[in-house]
Specification:
21% strand, 2 domains, single chain, VOC domain-containing protein, 2,3-Dihydroxybiphenyl 1,2-Dioxygenase, domain 1, 36% helix, five-stranded mixed β-sheet, alpha+beta, four-stranded mixed β-sheet
């Protein structure tokens, strides 16, 4: 009888585990299709945006990496690919997270020096974000996490401030970056104090905001 009880418990535990569908452990990479005319521009853009390293380059595609993964971004050209025209269903944007405020301010300044500026900059609350368009008009978000832990960010998203304003409060990129870079260490590392970082990351509340600006939604 005892063995039957153990078997029943074991079977029950197995059933519980099997009912939990597996989830991925990471988002591995993205692959973007481009026209032959924009191929080199696209490779250059993502090299500069991500400080990306080319790990494989063929006639029709490139693999880029910026961390431990063998490739994070693929760019593929095909002779029949046509440029995007107007609004269309599909991917809205992709997003990359930077480790520190200074890292994000430095990449903002680097891109600005190259003539690449964000079309929108906003403090969503849980992140501070800048949005760009690549040469094929794909939208790319660069962000910094505003909370120290996922639990704090999750609590904010579930809380009343985000429910009232899920869009965020716009920020001015030049003044935002200047403040951060003015404290940067000579080594390029974060020079802000803990209190300064908290102040910069804290969203300025503007009341209810539930509609995206038209220029953000534009294709």
């Amino acid at each position: 009888m005892a063995s039957n009880t153990i078997d029943a418990k074991t079977s029950s535990n197995v059933n519980v585990q099997m009912s939990r569908r597996p989830s991925p452990i990471a988002l591995a990479h993205i692959v973007l299709r481009t026209t032959p005319e924009n191929y080199k521009k696209m490779v250059w853009f993502y090299q500069e945006l991500l400080n990306g390293e080319i790990v494989l380059e063929e006639e029709a595609f490139v693999f880029l990496r910026y961390d431990y993964e063998h490739h994070r971004v693929g760019i593929l050209k095909t002779p029949d690919t046509k440029p995007k025209e107007g609004d269309h269903a599909g991917l809205e944007h992709i997003s990359f997270t930077f480790a520190t405020l200074t890292d994000m301010a430095r990449i903002y300044q680097h891109l600005k020096d190259l003539g690449i500026e964000p079309y929108w900059a906003v403090n969503h609350g849980m992140t501070s974000s800048m949005y760009y368009r690549d040469p094929e008009k794909n939208k790319v978000e660069l962000q910094i996490e505003n909370f120290d832990t996922p639990e704090e960010a999750d609590a904010f998203v579930r809380g009343p401030l985000f429910q009232s304003n899920p869009i965020g409060t716009d920020i001015d990129p030049p003044s935002w970056a200047d403040r951060i870079l003015s404290k940067m260490k000579p080594t390029g590392e974060e020079g802000l104090s803990e209190s300064e970082m908290r102040e910069i990351k804290l969203r300025r509340e503007i009341g209810p905001r539930n509609t995206m600006p038209d220029y953000v939604l534009a294709p």
